[in-house]
Specification:
This is Ring-cleaving dioxygenase. Keywords: Dioxygenase, Oxidoreductase. Pfam families: Glyoxalase. This protein has about 300 residues and is an alpha+beta fold. It has helices at about 20-30, 90-100, 165-175, 230-240, 300-305, and strands at about 10-15, 30-40, 45-50, 60-65, 80-85, 105-110, 115-120, 125-130, 155-160, 175-180, 185-190, 200-205, 220-225, 250, 255-260, 265-275. An eight-stranded mixed sheet has the order 2-3-4-1-13-16-15-14. A hairpin with a 3-residue loop joins strand 14 (about 250) and strand 15 (about 255-260).
Length: about 300
């Protein structure tokens, strides 16, 4: 049992237009852009991070905006919905706000007794806002949404799988327990004290075709551990269980390991350290283009090549 895992760390997705992506998360959802950097493996592509004031693990939505990327096709073997936590009684506010800004796919529903508002991102991304009581995580309030309504961080991710059995067993190994079931959806939550982003839903859809990754698709979902020592413990346990796990990779703002789940979703385990203020003052997070050391020599080219982003 991997008690080191305390919930979600971040979710990383694909997009086709950096400016549109930035506008959606900072202006429509009111999140803070906490880092403007580039893809380690494709430095001519941004890596944009949106979160609360500090980029607290459990609040961080990140994107690789590949210019003019083809839209993904929804299906199994992927995260279908990324859900954010908002205070109880605020869905009417959010429904009006998002409708006024032309956000598509607005739909109210109830799942496991929680009121939720589904909506789509610019590339058809699946999102939801979920009303939660007593989520005391601090919200970013300089993005045009007041403290009484603002997003607190992640609530959950929902995976669509043709067969959820093996992934359910993996989640139990990763310190999750099954707490509820509704139709084809099983809900898992972190055992003990999590970081607030504690829920994973697994929807089993045996006749649905496999997803095709593209703009609007989730690339991977990352789980949080406190530090590198805890991460190495997790890596050792996963390897001993038979998973093919990458070596530890330095991602500047956290260390990461990756492995593919039985259902096809790519999982990452990321450290809470060192954080997004390692190379920028907290007051100015996400303003300047930050580059990994190995790509710093490309700065003149990248600054002239990458699409300008306001804010």
């Amino acid at each position: 049992m991997l008690g080191q895992i305390k919930g979600l760390h971040h979710v990383t997705s694909l997009a086709r237009d950096a400016r549109e992506n930035n506008d959606f998360f900072t202006n429509k959802l009111g999140l803070r852009r906490v880092k403007k950097t580039v893809n380690f493996d494709a430095p001519d592509v941004y890596h944009l991070y949106y979160a609360d004031e500090f980029g607290t693990p459990g609040s961080v939505m990140t994107y690789f905006p590949f210019p003019n990327a083809a839209r993904g096709r929804a299906g199994t073997g992927e995260v279908g919905v990324t859900a954010f936590s908002v205070p109880r009684g605020t869905l009417a506010y959010w429904e009006q706000r998002l409708a006024d800004q032309g956000v598509a796919g607005l739909k109210r529903s109830d799942l496991f007794g929680e009121q939720r508002l589904a909506f789509e991102g610019p590339d058809g991304d699946g999102f939801a806002l979920v009303e939660v009581d007593d989520d005391d995580r601090a919200a970013w309030t300089n993005g045009g949404v007041g403290a009484d309504e603002a997003i607190r961080g992640f609530h959950s991710v929902s995976m669509r799988l043709q067969d959820g059995g093996a992934t359910a067993e993996l989640l139990k190994f990763m310190n999750y327990e099954e707490i509820d079931k509704s139709g084809s959806v099983r809900r898992f939550a972190v055992k003990g004290e999590g970081n607030g982003a504690d829920v994973i839903d697994v929807e089993t859809l045996p006749v649905l075709s496999h997803a095709r990754q593209g703009a609007g698709s989730v690339h991977h979902v990352a789980f949080a551990v406190e530090n590198r020592e805890r991460q190495l413990e997790v890596r050792k346990a996963l390897l001993e269980t038979g998973y093919q796990v990458t070596p530890v990779i330095d991602r500047d703002y956290f260390w990461a390991i990756y492995f593919r789940t039985p259902g096809g979703v790519l999982f990452e385990v990321a450290t809470n350290e060192p954080g997004f203020d390692r190379d920028e003052d907290t007051a100015h997070l996400g303003e300047a283009l930050r580059l990994p050391r190995q790509h710093e020599h490309l700065r003149p080219y990248l600054e002239s090549h990458l699409q300008p982003i306001e804010g």
